Amino acid sequence: MKLKSLKHLASKKTLIALSVVGMVAGLGAVPSGAATKTIPSKGLVYIIPKDTTNPYEVIADNGVKAALKTEGWKGVVDSGTVDTAAAQEPAIQAAIAAKANAIVIAANDPKALCPELEKARRAKITIIGFDSDNYCAGNLFINQANTQEIGASEVDLLAGEIHDTGQIAILSAAATATNQNAWIGYMKQELTKYPKMTLVATVYGNDDPTVSLTVLQGLLTQYPNLAGIISPTTVGISTAAQYLSTHESTYSNLILTGLGLPSQMATYTGDDNVKAFELWNPFDLGSLAGWAAMEINSGVVANKIGATFSIPAKGTKLVEAKSWTVTKAIAGSGDPSNFVTLGAPFVFTAANVKDFNF
Ligand code: RAM
């Protein structure tokens, strides 16, 4: 498998996240001495992405559904079409009405959904956050990769490409998005290592391609000397890559990086503007969240610090056994959830971007 030859930017870990594509085995840890519990043969999980149209979210949702299907469970995807907390509330209410076993949710706001999620929790629904965390009681967040590492490595990537110098900007998603805001916080921290790089603006495209394009154009007009843009969202980076590729002569000195789907970025990677970007496999993120929903809901694993999820290597496509331990969020991050972290962010370049089908 080609994936195994990829090296992580900083820690040189292999692409574990991608090596578990098609994960079909269960998370099997059982606390020693405890009565063995198993996942019942049916269950219902509401999958609530940031919105139902974002291709990244669709892949992640499919990962959740695939995990659920393995055990005979059903996944219902329900959310709005804009990235707001209000657009997600009806889906939480629907999960309660349907007596779902669990909700797997990518929150558009860290706290605004807590009143509705609290109602769900009181109705004995297991709450699993994925992609973008909620700061609500009883939550377990399935993090795609170490939050600090994601933010810092994007800055390091860009710094290497612009020789640590120049004006830079961030093209983000929704202004309230927990994940983007957490990454941006760590980007700012990392930028203190690069005194000749100046963050001049952060703009928000709401994970809507049209809005992303409008705010990008505003940015380019206002800051004609930008050396780099970091877009920590697949919608933002793909919109920017497309725009810059059609205006390459004007912006040939502008470098774009961030978090992108390799399938959306392949055309642009290696052109004047895009040299490298990062991501993980959103399908695997969804799979892990799906397994967590079933295992926690049925009491196989507890949502407790130190509890371990493991994937026995019994799945036909499982390349590498891996276990995940429940931890706290990074100290000082302000995130009260318990965390399970999927893997590490990976760097895609012209040399490897075509090897990936997501
Ligand atoms: C976008 C979404 C999502 C984020 C990815 C990287 O698709 O904002 O939340 O994780 O980008």
Strand order of the largest sheet: 2-1-3-4-5-14-13
Text of the CATH class of the largest domain = Alpha Beta
Helix/strand class: alpha/beta
Give the count of helical stretches.
10
First and last CA, distance: 16 Å
Q: Bound compounds, please?
A: alpha-L-rhamnopyranose
Q: What is the mean pLDDT?
A: 89
Biggest β-sheet description:
7 strands, mixed
CATH superfamily name of the largest domain?
Response regulator
H and E order: HEHEHEHEEHEHEHEHEHEHEEEEE
Q: Uncertain regions: pLDDT < 50 for 5+ in a row? A: 1-33, 313-319
* Cα-atom radius of gyration: 20 Å
% residues in beta strands:
15-25%
Question: Into which percent range does the helicity of residues fall?
Answer: 25-40%
| CATH third-tier fold name of the largest domain | Rossmann fold
Quickly count the domains.
2
Record field, number of beta strands: 15
Assign the CATH architecture of the largest domain: 3-Layer(aba) Sandwich
Shape: elongated
